Amino acid sequence: MIDVDICAENVMKPTPFTINIGEDILADLRARLALARWPDHIPGAGWRYGTDPAYVNQLAEYWRDRYDWRAQEARLNTFRHFSVPLHGIDLHFIHQPGVGPAPLPLLLLHGWPGSVWEFHKLIPLLTDPSASRGDAGDAFTVVAPSLPGYGFSYRPQQPRFNRVDMANLFAALMTEALGYPRFCCQGGDIGAAVTLRLAAAYPERLYGIHVNYLGMLRDAKPPDRPTEEEIRYLEDLQRWLTEEAGYHWIQGTKPQTLSYGLTDSPVGLAAWIVEKFQSWSDCDGDIERCFTKDELLTNIMLYWATGAINASFWPYYSSRHGDWTVAGTPHSKVPAAYISFPREIIRPPRSVAERALNIQRWTAADRGGHFAALEQPEVLAEDIRAFFRPFRAWQA
Question: Of the residues 150, 180, 303, 316, which is catalytic?
């Protein structure tokens, strides 16, 4: 855990940032893809033992011959990007102004193996709702940072940040660097854990919190007399820990060893990341029912081009070695909302969540999975708007 100082006089001003990956990095990528070595596999196994070899082969061929990074880079650059020196790193973030009479500031936090690219469909729905037949009065000004150690918030050998450090960093970003004394926060995956930490450590700065993942509650003490719903949840949790949590153990115990292969091989990196998008989405086994190849590869590019994959593992290591979790913390009084997507990896019942959070809104979505902002942006946007609508009267 790093030592931080969030005094306003020590906070630098943000400067505009433009994404521009060097041509040498793209040429090196194409050469590595052309020379990829392929492992053997069990014929006809598909995704049963991990990422489907046939699909990775297709994806790599597309990446090498048809994927247009410059087009996706230009799409990303339609948002307003900034960088600010803060807590010992150069923090990258999108700061997109709302189009409406009184936009609420909203901190939007991604997780692993995601990136700010996950939000490219969601941000316009939140900043300019009237453009999609919504109410301009529901507009947000969105601040979407790359988590420290991820994407453009990464430099080699920079300090590592756990969830506590991230919460301190983002509190400083919103209040000291950007001047928002109070703001909303939304997160999924690691971003959800940081959101809950913000509620615990900085309740006076938050209107409320909205999350689409509550997997961090898995460490909470089981109830003495669980209900039938809680029993099903505990059984599902055990199945997930047995069959799906291998990545968590590797990244949480020996991340450096794993990082050599993923930093050196674009095929290895793609296989490691894409498997999660297939397993954790509502795709019924067909990943491209939810995500196009361009969407998958643009997210992967934010790890490949920056070399950030090893640093991105740090929250997993720190969580297994003394990091803060929701379990065992005081009940948060900050108003909270949760939207449950049916293919989310862990879905606690409301009774479990209410032991840690002040749940004011609980939504069960009809479809969608872990990467909700990319998979079901309209559903997620509407739930965020609905939850924060009553807080707009507090803005004055």
Answer: 316
